[in-house]
């Protein structure tokens, strides 16, 4: 599954209040074996959208019990007609004495007159009905209008992940409770019915005219959240045959309007599936895949086995769309198909290990994209981006571990955070780099094979990789991968490794601690840190397997360096930043690294390490571990740097500090930044020719960055280039002539420079389109305004919307505005005034971002209790508020303790 809209830096969920209350789990007395599901769907116009049917569940008794408990939510169960009988040839009937519903736990318990026998099988049959809901979960309705006929078409589709199958039929709705399914769908003949497997036969409905019952082929053992079906009147394109082992056939369905933009996705999917099949060496077990592009979708996409659903706007690749968006859509697709193995074939034991399906699917999604679309260079950029995100996020107090205990439906849903996706992906990459290609793939393949059709916890992955490592070199090491990796997945944050060289004895001394911005409290956490040295002479950045380890716990360690490390040359740890830790060296070693960076040999240091060195040294200076003079000495090499990744990283780090500054300090900072980005800007061609010059994604990324940051810091030439697209009556059309990848930046610059006509015309376009990526870019551009009077009607408009996406746009606009600070105070006031509405409409994630921005980063002068007073409308958000206050304290520490040094060091360069 892929979360929707990751256009903005996403949330910092506070450590959730964990409930260790097992009452949310199903009792383990029963094990479902098979479901027979029969559902009639009615799509008779807007006021009569409903379904009815029954489920027959065959289950086995593992422990004696007098009750059957399963999940059901918002379903009308026909209790009088529930039956329970022994199966298949048993006798006797069992009466239900009492029924108990618990809506909080979403459980339905049938107490029986007699006891169920161990090892016996029974069949439970429950008739039920419900309206199709409009919330994009469970079995829901959606609609689209056909531009040719101007007719509104209703359709019904499912979204069961993570805990919504129970809204569609009573079931044992936990991922490890796999069972086989036979699904029969009833609907009016004018519609098409789809499910995970193809239709095997159809018969006319016994009473309803023009209705049919179509039975689908049996589905192999699966978790309930992967079951899917749909009844719709979408348009399909001709079937494509993939080159997989059993030539899986692909059909894609979409509203007619999306047809012309869907070619990429239609053709990309079969290639992705067959690439992954070869990579994993495990044949995709189903005969067909339907891809369903739905007008509405709770997430971006969902990996249902054999019936993958997408939000329509995440499936279509529009002509007028940034390269970044196209890539991100292709990445979502690759992610969903990687799930066919990670999640579908091998299920989770429980949602605490959600990262075990989202992490690999994200990582293998990157690898797939890199293999199939190498010109995009997505892998390196994606990894660099994720490293950037987590080195930042995880240095605050309020971050979370990748794997966390979860119980109730809400905390399960909240578990779908960037930690399980992107940090999970970084964890897979870490294993890949540390084990090496060969061992990693042997381990991954044996893991899939061993656990196919079963379910796993993270120890099962460690075990498979351990065996593969032991096989390769039985004597080599006694490293226990389970111990090593648990230290990375069960703890929040990441370590700082301190490395002191003894140049005369050619040894190093190492120790570790958790890296936190404002190291206010000692945390006794530690990690198993892989030690892989690169030295200046050998430049062996490709050799990422650990030479040794810093254990956990350990009070420090001395290591002898090889003779290749001369005292006159630097050493470096963590080649390719294969693991998430920072390193602080002694000053002499830092100076030698800086010397190489400031030479023609700067690119002999791996690009990801260059980015990391900049980030590390700046953050270490933030923390008093090093001096800002040293950090800015490293920045001197930047004019040589021709790659976007190190630039992007360093600008991100500096902007995060700059946003905290005020007055004279801010003024000096802006002068410094203008100087810093000028050599970057000089590399960027004119906007009118930029598209002719490059179609390469890495260069587009470089030029976008150059324009964005240079216009932001008032590089005169940047503003005047952006401005050239301004003096025209047909403002909007005119701005459409800017190459699409740069349009958002040009719009932002013009709006920031006071172009009200452009603001108004974008506002108007915004209201007249459903194109999410476009709206997202516009929301950010409108936030560049310097005039609160201008921006307010837009914020009001978003606030009044009922579409949840509107609140994402709101967050983007506000983020953009707060980063620029022109109207920060008014915006903060505006948000405080609307606390009540925000409380009722926005998600906790959205609220967290807002609070972090207005309280954490703006360092509001209000005392805590005044703030709480102002924010009393936000009554469900105590944890979010506390996290924002903590962040403010951390940032205040930097302002009082370090900002002066920071400004003093950079003043030399202004
Ligand atoms: C919905 O449609 C069914 C079948 O067409 C009909 O029997 C039922 O009365 C309708 N319900 C409403 C509320 O219109
Ligand atoms: C439902 O479950 C919750 C959580 O375990 C419990 O607090 C509550 O009392 C239960 N409600 C009923 C009606 O049993
Ligand atoms: C299509 O339907 C909408 C609303 O139902 C109506 O306003 C519009 O005029 C119709 N357009 C055409 C071309 O029939
Ligand atoms: C089904 O299709 C037929 C022929 O295209 C049409 O006349 C009829 O109105 C449709 N029925 C429904 C319920 O949409
Ligand atoms: C489905 O679409 C077809 C062709 O576009 C049309 O003939 C049919 O009436 C539609 N059915 C419904 C239920 O709208
Ligand atoms: C690590 O070593 C450095 C340098 O000797 C020392 O300042 C620091 O306190 C040590 N940290 C820990 C957590 O032991
Ligand atoms: C390191 O690996 C990359 C990618 O596989 C390759 O292009 C490069 O030549 C290698 N460098 C060295 C020094 O082996
Ligand atoms: C971080 O958390 C620790 C322990 O949970 C707490 O003592 C400390 O005050 C927090 N620091 C900040 C800056 O909020
Ligand atoms: Zn996913």
From TrEMBL:
<dbReference type="GO" id="GO:0043171">
    <property type="term" value="P:peptide catabolic process"/>
</dbReference>
<dbReference type="GO" id="GO:0008270">
    <property type="term" value="F:zinc ion binding"/>
</dbReference>
<keyword id="KW-0325">Glycoprotein</keyword>
<feature type="active site" description="Proton acceptor">
    <location>
        <position position="336"/>
    </location>
</feature>
<feature type="domain" description="ERAP1-like C-terminal">
    <location>
        <begin position="570"/>
        <end position="871"/>
    </location>
</feature>
<keyword id="KW-0336">GPI-anchor</keyword>
<keyword id="KW-0862">Zinc</keyword>
<dbReference type="GO" id="GO:0006508">
    <property type="term" value="P:proteolysis"/>
</dbReference>
<keyword id="KW-0378">Hydrolase</keyword>
<dbReference type="InterPro" id="IPR045357">
    <property type="entry name" value="Aminopeptidase_N-like_N"/>
</dbReference>
<keyword id="KW-0449">Lipoprotein</keyword>
<protein>
    <recommendedName>
        <fullName>Aminopeptidase</fullName>
        <ecNumber>3.4.11.-</ecNumber>
    </recommendedName>
</protein>
<keyword id="KW-0482">Metalloprotease</keyword>
<dbReference type="GO" id="GO:0005615">
    <property type="term" value="C:extracellular space"/>
</dbReference>
<dbReference type="GO" id="GO:0005737">
    <property type="term" value="C:cytoplasm"/>
</dbReference>
<keyword id="KW-0645">Protease</keyword>
<dbReference type="Pfam" id="PF17900">
    <property type="entry name" value="Peptidase_M1_N"/>
</dbReference>
<dbReference type="GO" id="GO:0005886">
    <property type="term" value="C:plasma membrane"/>
</dbReference>
<dbReference type="InterPro" id="IPR027268">
    <property type="entry name" value="Peptidase_M4/M1_CTD_sf"/>
</dbReference>
<dbReference type="InterPro" id="IPR042097">
    <property type="entry name" value="Aminopeptidase_N-like_N_sf"/>
</dbReference>
<feature type="domain" description="Peptidase M1 membrane alanine aminopeptidase">
    <location>
        <begin position="265"/>
        <end position="488"/>
    </location>
</feature>
<feature type="site" description="Transition state stabilizer">
    <location>
        <position position="421"/>
    </location>
</feature>
<feature type="binding site">
    <location>
        <position position="339"/>
    </location>
    <ligand>
        <name>Zn(2+)</name>
    </ligand>
</feature>
<dbReference type="InterPro" id="IPR001930">
    <property type="entry name" value="Peptidase_M1"/>
</dbReference>
<dbReference type="InterPro" id="IPR014782">
    <property type="entry name" value="Peptidase_M1_dom"/>
</dbReference>
<keyword id="KW-0732">Signal</keyword>
<dbReference type="GO" id="GO:0098552">
    <property type="term" value="C:side of membrane"/>
</dbReference>
<feature type="domain" description="Aminopeptidase N-like N-terminal">
    <location>
        <begin position="31"/>
        <end position="226"/>
    </location>
</feature>
<dbReference type="InterPro" id="IPR034016">
    <property type="entry name" value="M1_APN-typ"/>
</dbReference>
<dbReference type="InterPro" id="IPR024571">
    <property type="entry name" value="ERAP1-like_C_dom"/>
</dbReference>
<feature type="binding site">
    <location>
        <position position="358"/>
    </location>
    <ligand>
        <name>Zn(2+)</name>
    </ligand>
</feature>
<feature type="binding site">
    <location>
        <position position="335"/>
    </location>
    <ligand>
        <name>Zn(2+)</name>
    </ligand>
</feature>
<keyword id="KW-1003">Cell membrane</keyword>
<keyword id="KW-0472">Membrane</keyword>
<dbReference type="Pfam" id="PF11838">
    <property type="entry name" value="ERAP1_C"/>
</dbReference>
<comment type="similarity">
    <text>Belongs to the peptidase M1 family.</text>
</comment>
<dbReference type="Pfam" id="PF01433">
    <property type="entry name" value="Peptidase_M1"/>
</dbReference>
<keyword id="KW-0479">Metal-binding</keyword>
<dbReference type="InterPro" id="IPR050344">
    <property type="entry name" value="Peptidase_M1_aminopeptidases"/>
</dbReference>
<dbReference type="GO" id="GO:0070006">
    <property type="term" value="F:metalloaminopeptidase activity"/>
</dbReference>
<keyword id="KW-0031">Aminopeptidase</keyword>
<dbReference type="GO" id="GO:0042277">
    <property type="term" value="F:peptide binding"/>
</dbReference>
């Amino acid at each position: 599954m892929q979360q929707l809209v990751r256009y903005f830096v996403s949330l910092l969920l506070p450590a959730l209040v964990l409930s260790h209350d097992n009452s949310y789990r199903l009792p383990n007395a029963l094990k479902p074996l098979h479901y027979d599901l029969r559902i009639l769907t009615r799509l008779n116009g807007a006021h009569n959208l409903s379904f009815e049917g029954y489920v027959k569940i065959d289950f086995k008794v593992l422990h004696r019990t007098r009750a059957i408990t399963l999940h059901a939510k918002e379903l009308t169960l026909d209790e009088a007609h529930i039956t329970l009988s022994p199966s298949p040839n048993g006798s006797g009937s069992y009466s239900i004495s009492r029924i108990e519903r618990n809506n909080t736990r979403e459980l339905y318990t049938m107490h029986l007159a007699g006891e169920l026998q161990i090892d016996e099988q029974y069949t439970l049959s429950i008739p039920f009905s419900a309206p199709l809901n409009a919330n994009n979960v469970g079995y829901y309705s959606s609609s689209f209008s056909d531009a040719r006929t101007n007719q509104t078409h209703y359709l019904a589709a499912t979204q069961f992940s993570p805990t919504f199958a129970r809204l569609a039929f009573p079931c044992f709705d936990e991922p490890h409770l796999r069972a086989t399914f036979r699904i029969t769908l009833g609907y009016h003949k004018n519609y098409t019915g789809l499910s995970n497997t193809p239709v095997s036969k159809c018969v006319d409905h016994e009473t309803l005219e023009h209705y049919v019952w179509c039975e689908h082929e049996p589905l192999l053992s699966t978790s309930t959240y992967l079951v899917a079906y749909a009844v719709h009147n979408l348009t399909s394109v001709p079937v494509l045959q993939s080159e997989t082992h059993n030539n899986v056939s692909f059909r894609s369905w979409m509203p007619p309007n999306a047809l012309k933009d869907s070619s990429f996705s239609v053709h990309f999917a079969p290639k992705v599936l067959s690439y992954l099949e070869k990579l994993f060496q495990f044949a995709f077990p189903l005969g067909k895949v339907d891809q369903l592009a739905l007008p509405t979708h709770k997430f971006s996409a969902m990996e249902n086995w054999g019936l993958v659903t997408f939000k329509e706007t995440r499936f279509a690749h529009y002509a007028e769309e940034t390269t970044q968006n196209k890539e991100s859509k292709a990445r979502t697709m690759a992610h969903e198909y990687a799930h066919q193995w990670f999640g579908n074939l091998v299920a989770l034991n429980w949602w605490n290990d959600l990262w075990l399906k989202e992490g690999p699917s994200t990582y293998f999604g990157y690898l797939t994209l890199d293999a199939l679309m190498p010109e995009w260079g997505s892998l390196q950029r994606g990894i660099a981006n994720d490293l950037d995100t987590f080195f930042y996020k995880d240095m605050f107090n309020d971050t979370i571990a990748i794997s966390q205990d979860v119980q109730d439906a809400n905390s399960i849903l909240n578990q779908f955070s960037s930690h399980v996706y992107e940090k999970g992906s970084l964890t897979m990459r870490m294993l890949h780099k540390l084990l090496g290609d060969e061992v990693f793939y042997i381990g991954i393949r044996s893991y899939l094979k061993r656990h196919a059709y079963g379910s796993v916890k993270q120890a099962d992955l460690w075990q498979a990789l351990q065996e593969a490592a032991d096989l390769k070199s039985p004597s080599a090491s006694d490293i226990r991968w389970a111990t090593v990796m648990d230290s990375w997945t069960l703890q929040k944050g990441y370590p700082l490794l301190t490395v002191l060289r003894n140049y005369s004895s050619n040894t190093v001394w190492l120790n570790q601690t958790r890296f936190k911005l404002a190291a206010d409290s000692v945390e006794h956490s530690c990690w198993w840190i892989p030690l892989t040295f690169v030295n200046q002479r050998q430049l062996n950045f490709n050799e990422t397997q650990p030479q040794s380890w810093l254990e956990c716990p350990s009070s420090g360690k001395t290591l002898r360096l090889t003779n290749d490390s001369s005292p006159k040359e630097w050493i470096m740890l963590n080649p390719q930043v294969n693991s998430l830790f920072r390193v602080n060296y002694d000053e002499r070693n830092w100076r030698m690294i800086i010397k190489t960076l400031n030479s023609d040999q700067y690119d002999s240091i791996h690009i990801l390490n260059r980015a990391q060195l900049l980030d590390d040294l700046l953050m270490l200076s933030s923390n008093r571990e090093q001096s800002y003079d040293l950090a800015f000495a490293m920045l001197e090499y930047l004019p040589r740097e021709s790659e976007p990744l190190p630039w992007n990283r360093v600008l991100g780090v500096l902007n995060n500090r700059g946003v905290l500054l005020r007055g004279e300090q801010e003024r000096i900072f802006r002068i410094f930044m203008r100087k810093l980005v000028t050599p970057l800007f000089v590399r960027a061609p004119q906007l009118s020719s930029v598209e002719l010059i490059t179609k390469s994604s890495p260069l587009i990324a470089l030029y976008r960055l150059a324009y964005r940051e240079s216009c932001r810091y008032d590089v005169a030439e940047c503003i005047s280039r952006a401005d050239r697209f301004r003096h025209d009556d047909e403002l909007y059309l005119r701005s459409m002539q800017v190459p699409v990848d740069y349009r958002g930046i040009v719009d932002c610059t013009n709006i920031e420079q006071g172009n009200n006509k452009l603001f108004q015309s974008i506002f108007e376009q915004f209201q007249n389109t459903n194109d999410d990526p476009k709206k997202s870019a516009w929301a950010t551009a409108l936030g560049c305004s310097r005039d609160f009077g201008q921006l307010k009607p837009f914020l009001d408009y978003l606030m009044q919307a009922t579409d949840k996406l509107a609140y994402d746009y709101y967050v983007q606009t506000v983020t953009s505005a707060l980063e620029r600070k022109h109207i920060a105070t008014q915006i903060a006031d505006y948000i405080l005034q609307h606390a009540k509405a925000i409380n009722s409409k926005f998600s906790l994630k959205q609220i967290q971002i807002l609070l972090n921005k207005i309280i954490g980063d703006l360092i509001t002068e209000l005392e805590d209790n005044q703030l709480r007073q102002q924010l009393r409308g936000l009554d469900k958000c105590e944890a979010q508020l506390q996290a924002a206050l903590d962040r403010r304290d951390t940032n205040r520490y930097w302002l009082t303790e370090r900002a002066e040094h920071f400004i003093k060091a950079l003043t030399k360069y202004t």
